[in-house]
Write a structure and sequence with these properties.
97 residues, 0% helix, mainly beta, single chain
């Protein structure tokens, strides 16, 4: 799902994007279709995050706070740092001797 598609009341939302700003326990996430605020707690993180990291937000709920859309993590929600979980796959087939 893209940030530009979210609406108040949506649940079990999963988003991916780049952290463009952080302040306390609030992230500003941009995915190219828009920006939104992500509220989180330290226990919601699988690893440390910083501005510029690509993350995936899992199991969020869209709320309206003072006219601004925000994502709040539901019970079991997580923030996964995709910048630190890069996988490399070899395109060459394995050879047997």
């Amino acid at each position: 799902m893209k940030i530009g598609e979210i609406a108040v009341g949506m649940r079990k939302v999963t988003l991916q994007g780049k952290i463009v700003d952080m302040n306390g326990f609030m992230i500003v996430l941009d995915d190219g279709s828009g920006r939104t605020f992500i509220r989180y707690r330290a226990k919601d993180l699988d690893t440390q995050i910083k501005t510029g990291d690509r993350i995936q937000v899992q199991n969020g709920r869209v709320v309206n706070y003072s006219g601004i859309l925000q994502i709040r993590l539901e019970r079991g929600g997580r923030i996964v740092n995709l910048s630190r979980h890069s996988f490399s796959v070899s395109s060459a087939p394995a050879r047997s001797s």
